[in-house]
Automatic annotation (TrEMBL):
Pfam families: Helicase_C (PF00271), SNF2-rel_dom (PF00176), SNF2_assoc (PF08455). InterPro entries: Helicase_ATP-bd, Helicase_C-like, Helicase_SWF/SNF/SWI_bac, P-loop_NTPase, SNF2-like_sf, SNF2/RAD54-like_C, SNF2_N, Znf_SWIM. One of its GO terms (molecular function) is zinc ion binding. Residues 629-791 form the Helicase ATP-binding domain. Keywords: Hydrolase, Metal-binding, Zinc, Zinc-finger. Residues 900-1058 form the Helicase C-terminal domain. This is Snf2 family helicase. It comes from Vagococcus teuberi. The lineage of its organism: Bacteria, Bacillati, Bacillota, Bacilli, Lactobacillales.
Amino acid sequence: MKWSIPEKVIEEGRECAKEGRVVSWSKNLERRVWYAEVIGSDMLYVELDGTAKEDDVCQCMYWEQHGYCKHTVAVELAMREQRVSRFIPRTELKETDAPKVISPAVVFTKGFERLQEAELRKLIRQTDDLFLTYGIDIVPTSEYHDEQSVLGLHLRIGRRDTPNKTYVVKNMDEFLEAYKQDREIRISTINWKVGATAFNSEDNALIHSMLAMKEQQTLVVNSRSQAKSVIDRRYMILSKQEARELFDHFKHDKAFVIKGFDTQIKRAVIHQGKIPLTVTLSPVGLTDYELTIIDPFIVFLEEYRWLVGTDGFYELTEEQAASYQVLTQMLKRLDKPTIYYTKDQVSSLFSYVLPQLALLCDFELPESLDDEVLRYPLDIKLYFHKEEASLVVRVDFCYGDYVFSNEPKYSTSIGEEGVVLRDKVQEERLLTLLRHYGYGTYAQKYSKTFPNDLERFYFFTREIPTFEKYTTVHLSDDIKALYLTADEHQPKARIIENGSWFDIQFDISSVDETEVNDVLSSLMQNKEYHQLRNGQVLMLDDEAYKETNQMLRLLREDIRLDGNRLEVPTYRSLVLSEAMTQLSDVETSDYFETMVDELTHPEKVEVSLPNKLNATLRDYQLTGFKWFKILSKYHFGGILADDMGLGKTIQTIAYLLSEKEDGELTKPSVIVAPASLLYNWQLELEKFAPSLKSKLIIGGKEERNEQIASLDDVDVAIISYSTLRQDSTEFRKIDCHSVILDEAQMVKNSTTKTFQSISGLKSDRVFALSGTPIENRLEELWSLFKLLMPGFFPPKRRFKQLETTEVATMIKPFVLRRVKKEVLQDLPDKVETDRYSQLTGEQKTVYVAYLKQIQESMSQLNEKDFNKQRMSILAGITRLRQICCHPGLFIDGYTGGSGKMDQALDLIEQAKSNGRRVLLFSQFTGMLSILEDELAKRDVGTFYLRGSTPVKERQKLVERFNRGEKDVFLISLKAGGTGLNLTGADTVILYDLWWNPAVEEQATGRAHRIGQTKKVEVWRLLAEGTIEERMNQLQLEKKALFQKVLHSEDAPELSSMTMDDIKHILAIGDED
């Protein structure tokens, strides 16, 4: 380890090694280097120099800047831990055996110790020596409240040879416990051997029921009953359900008796419905009445809602129980069960008393009532008016022509015509409602302070509608004038262009233009109303206001209010257009309509292709070119998200050339791409647009500075992401016409220096090229648009709250996405097949051991600990995936084979025999090396592309393969998944799954693209019964997010893997 590496980096490397993030290392004697794999944000490939120079290499950006990093340190420290020296002597002729990596011991459960079975007692015969008698008592629990009594079961025990002599079981719990244990119990100075053999089947059935009741008793019996059962141990207190079940058990037993309150009930019958109360209403004189009620019941059991009578029990409903309890309380206060009602009290009798009695029992009314009582339906009328600062309401209860008002001058005199039967319940309900809304009585009037603001809104929208359910409401004219309905005062809008903004001017009838701003502010606060300065309440609940509010909500991060005007950025034109269609009256400008039409239908726009373009564009590519031109015209940015292989490069070149021929390219444009694609861009520009002057920004720092300083005469500068990061200061000084971000998914993280370098470029237009702008989560789209059009999306916290349907609507004109099957009818089919293999016996043993170790670790973690140890857990999962590929990736000396490798080798030989040519992708370079050796043994020639392959060498390998040299191309998934054209292959093998399906799509797109003439078969290899099956399921969910956000209006959110996700994944492969 070089002495110049800072101590901080060494410490970080030590932590990295401790966390188990160094997943493998292997020796290359010829080059005298160690190849290693380390888990970072992605899988990173490290080369450790085995010579004294110690010139180590890592893929991470930190190494690119400093020439050292924590990952190289971690590899060396991990090797030291295993007593492996990084130094490879020149004299070493063959790779010596390195110390074996100690695998975790396979933990096998020894199993539960067999439970000792108790030796069953051998019964010579069933004795049936004892018998039980039983009964139920009504047991008081309160000296003052008979209704709180409960039902208690008691037992007596005797011997069959002396049936007339029985003894009380004084402790029920002790008896039942002795029965369960088949032991003796002392009852009344006698020892009794109680057990199942001592009783007959009927008695045993009763005891078993009692045992079940005992287990549930604390759940179903209230505390009062429990207290009683403790005081008097002879009883088992019964719940309602238990009593009902026992009654069914006893119904054929003639000896069954219920005792209590000096009464015996021989029939355990439960009646339902009306009860046998005796109710009599008799006239007294001309207008008075006498009510008599006879109650024959012994007691009411409140806990059971049962009335106890001599002929059994009567079960009451909740309403009946409430009425009966009030009835008994009132009767207790009377000397005799007769109540006298005068003429003035008859309405209360009919309103309050008789309806409750009718719930309990049936009774008849005297015929004379029809002549003496006047019956009319009740009609309630409310009259609201304003008196100074008060809101006053007059209440009229109307029965036919008779009116009873709170203001006497409006009431009708009855005289001697009889008694008007008033509905006291409905009248009192209305008066209660008035009190609920704050009306008090003063000088025979109901009134309250005249409501303002929110209270006024509630008055019109809640209070009045509630009154209208029960009454006829009359409002005075001055009150009516205070209520402006939304349907009669809808907003009208006019859109005017103002540079890079649209001005939206609103007008609302009956609202002064100086108050429109306030109305819109209320709307943006989701208020249901707005109170104007003159006191009027304007309702905002109409559909037009709702749609306007929806528009304001979508635009609220960008919107500016100015009087009765809104100012909206032009890039919100489509959202604005859609929202405006909901308004009853909207006026737009030609400029606005043209912009909306062109953004919506770019394919219909008349734009000529550049004259000097050396290519013929397909129809969809012509649409893409027009899309570029339209966005550029309005100074917008966008994402060309076409499927891999559809020609994003040629569409971009056509756009840049057109800008030059139109005289718009007065400043250089910059193409930022991965380093591996720089020369490809230069070749494509020279081939299709030689009139565009292009320059590669490469070489040392001084050389690059000279290249950047001479860009005045250059049309297109081509630079890598890493170089731009290093030269960001110089590029910030340059005014650019357009910035093109190739493979833009590489800058999805807004916190990186690369992202900051790009955001510092000065350009009117920024375009992103990416077949997978969303790889894992929706926030990646937020990051891209922050580069393309700063301010387009709201801040990230607010963005996360948006529905995906909202996001899809916002980005629609600025993301162009086409897939091969839709636009390339002449492109051969791509057939994808999942092929499953079995783990070998030894491979499975290793897998199960590691899986159980990880599962045990996970089971001990809470959410907080999980977040702390996430990297360690992911490292363990990586181990499982390596085992699925080949345990030899990290276990030295492993000889147990790999089911998946055998399958891959067989598939390659079959493909070769059928004249097919293969691309095989794996993220583990160690696996590719193993396959390379195995294929060499079978005389199968291979090319091998890894992360360390130089850029120019990559292009040569691609050209040689496409010319037909060798049959298999082994490619590192991350190193060669983008930017390569390998149409010489017609078979793609994805040896191991990647978390992100977009990476696999990019890999298969190397062969299935324009120029392919054969059907492409894609074989995805999965180890059956392992975590790879759950990974496959996770991929399908991520694909749904990508497709639905870019193509549909109904997209689910997808967050990063949670603790539950990982537990779900680890559930696979758990069984032998």
